[in-house]
Amino acid sequence: MTPPTTFLATIPSPPQGVWEIGPIPIRAYALLVIAGIFVAARWGQKRLSARGGAPGTVVDVAVYAVPFGIVGGRLYHVITDYHLYFGAGKDPVRALYIWEGGLGIWGAIALGAVGAWIGCRRKGLPLPVFADAVAPGIAVAHAIARIGNYFNQELYGSHTTLPWGLEIYQRVNANGEVDALNGVSNGIPLPDSPVHPVFLYELLWLLGVAALVVYLDRKLNLGHGRAFALYVAGYTLGRTWIELMRTDPATLVFGVRVNVWVSILVFAGGLAYFVWGRRKGSREVLEKTDEPATPTGNVV
Fold this sequence. Notes:
This protein is mainly alpha-helical. It is 50% helix and 7% strand.
């Protein structure tokens, strides 16, 4: 008789998200954010070179955009989740602890765009051209960063019996005290475990958005910021229903999570710009650089 095959009933969480090397904590979340930025920069440069951009331009612009984006992302998170840092029994100084996670994508994009505008002006590059080039890479970078939420055991939903349910375990520090962020799993599941892996739903949606941007960019020869607008509209369409699945505390507006309202508004703006931008014609043509660019039709 053939023994029965055993299938994985749930997705286990990593035992920890932080590793100590001497006095230095190595955080999976931070490493994955850095990896995402690297992927976005490399892919963005490839796409920009295909449009006639000079080699090294994306890195030069990123020197301004990335720090602005990190600050903007943290500000958005602190403002929309102020209850985590302010009020009775809270420590406002923890609002500065960016290494503990908590970056709001729309704050990162808004202030990152300011940094990108500064960098583009210094390079003599139109901001919409840069935005179109890096759009799918930003989506993939965001997806990579979501793996950091997996290591942090965050961004999950309610209890589920589905086979891809995520097991969430209690984590404790060296003193045996509960420490969800810096501790190590003791193997005891939390009461609602397993739960919907909301971070995974968003990760997969982001990869789909990146693929959609690449496909329509090739098919429609998008320009003037329309590829970036497509990324914005596509992401927020998914973020609206994904946000509704989350169970972590959040600021509510009319009984609905604030990020749901923001996603709806940004979706409307992104879609409107994508449609309106058609009147500007096909993709911009940049002046040729000293190095030959890859033919536009061959770039992803």
